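Technical annex, item 7. During the second reporting period the consortium partners agreed on a shared format for inverse folding records so that results from different sites could be compared directly. Each record opens with the tokenized structure and is followed by the designed sequence. A conforming record, contributed by the partner at site C, is shown below for reference.
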């Protein structure tokens, strides 16, 4: 049987599903039923989702949750998170509560500039290219005016166009390095449209355009979030000892890339969950954050901590390119609702909220790792996942959770306990 197909995108939804079932499902009826079960009954809503991407055959759910009690710059927030990983939301909620009695989170946006680049090859001499660029530069701004008008009305637009000589790294390679302000939109379409228009006007016989694209590296679109408290308030017992351990954990992530990647992954658990819930591009944010963590030439922690004059300080600086208008933020009903829950933030406010979600997640991880260990909290949720896998009912769940309090959890042990419970009753 041939598993290749031509014209798949032209099939209607039913035909796509049938083709898939005939070629790939071991149990066709069951597979089709699963796909259909996840389709929305409201056809208008389903059509909306179908049109986000191509060849949609169903929806893939992940949980949507709320972490309340975040105090950010003295304002209270309940933060929506879309994530499948156990413990992330519970950790966020606990940390929000912890810091809500210690002054909350302080945040500020450091910068909001984004970058797009036109990459091109040029074989003649650099002076001639510079002269040509200087001559045409104001024209490049002018031809984008119809595209930038709306953005300029909202305080954004093209900030600068710079010619960069990159021939030291690659023969004949130059760039137009263009900086943008995109107000409350993430601005990917805006930036790419401007770049292609500029590239078209800039190219000539000698200038061979290779490509024009925004950069997801946004070190000039930076936000900072911080918490601080007296050391004695850091922990119930031995506060100084645990604060020191916490700081050493951050220092380790700063010098040891194997640890730094996991440390930053924990931060991204919080960040990506809110980025996704607000309809933003989590791949762009993650790529930019990890690149920023390597800016010194070595991959390091995105957070920092110190003790100074009897106080504990913990902070994050992270590049976040986000939007609160346009794109999925205005299309996906849950993304729109997330923004409503967050009290209709501007893009700058959303940067601050999301930086807090990252800092909170890292705080939870480091506090657990340097005290009880991570498994205690994780395993509670893991236990529930195992029980669900084993199709335990409510009563069985209650009995098993009780039985495993304070005990080591493994799939085998739970499965055995459930088996014993079922055979004994
Ligand atoms: C798990 O998703 C995230 C942690 O590994 C983060 C960390 O180790 O800092 C717990």
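Designed sequence (site C submission):
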């Amino acid at each position: 049987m041939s598993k290749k197909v031509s014209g798949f995108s032209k099939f209607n939804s039913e035909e796509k599903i049938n083709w898939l079932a005939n070629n790939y499902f071991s149990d066709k009826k069951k597979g089709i039923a699963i796909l259909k079960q996840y389709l929305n009954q409201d056809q208008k809503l389903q059509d909306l989702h179908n049109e986000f991407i191509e060849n949609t055959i169903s929806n893939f759910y992940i949980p949507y949750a709320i972490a309340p009690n975040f105090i950010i710059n003295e304002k209270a927030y309940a933060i929506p998170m879309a994530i499948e990983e156990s413990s992330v939301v519970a950790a966020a909620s606990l940390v929000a509560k912890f810091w809500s009695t210690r002054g909350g989170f302080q945040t500020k946006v450091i910068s909001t500039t984004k970058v797009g680049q036109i990459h091109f090859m040029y074989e003649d001499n650099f002076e001639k290219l510079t002269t040509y660029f200087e001559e045409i530069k104001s024209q490049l701004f002018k031809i984008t005016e119809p595209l930038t008008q709306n953005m300029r009305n909202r305080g954004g637009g093209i900030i600068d166009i710079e010619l960069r000589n990159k021939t030291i790294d690659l023969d004949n390679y130059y760039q137009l390095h263009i900086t943008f302000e995109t107000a409350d939109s993430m601005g990917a379409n805006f930036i790419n449209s401007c770049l292609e228009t500029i590239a078209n006007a800039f190219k000539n016989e000698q200038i061979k355009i290779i490509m024009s694209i925004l950069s997801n590296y946004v070190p000039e679109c930076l936000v900072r979030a911080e918490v601080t408290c007296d050391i004695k308030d850091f922990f119930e017992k031995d506060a100084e000892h645990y604060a020191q351990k916490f700081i050493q954990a951050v220092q380790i992530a700063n010098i040891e890339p194997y640890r730094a990647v996991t440390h930053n992954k924990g931060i991204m658990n919080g960040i990506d969950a809110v980025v996704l819930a607000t309809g933003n591009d989590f791949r762009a944010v993650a790529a930019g954050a990890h690149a920023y963590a390597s800016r010194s030439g070595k991959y390091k922690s995105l957070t920092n901590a110190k003790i100074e004059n009897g106080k504990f300080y913990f902070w994050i600086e992270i590049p976040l390119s986000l939007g609160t208008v346009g794109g999925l933020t205005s299309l996906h009903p849950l993304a729109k609702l997330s923004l409503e829950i967050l009290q209709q933030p501007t893009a700058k406010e959303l940067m601050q909220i999301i930086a807090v979600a990252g800092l909170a997640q890292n705080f939870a991880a480091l506090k657990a790792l340097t005290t009880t260990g991570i498994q205690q909290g994780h395993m509670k949720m893991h236990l529930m996942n195992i029980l669900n896998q084993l199709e335990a009912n409510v009563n069985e769940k209650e009995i098993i959770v009780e039985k495993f309090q304070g005990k080591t959890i493994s799939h085998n042990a739970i499965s055995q306990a459930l088996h014993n419970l079922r055979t004994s009753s």
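Residues 377-424 form one domain. The first strand starts at residue 64 and ends at 72. All partners now use this format for quarterly exchanges.
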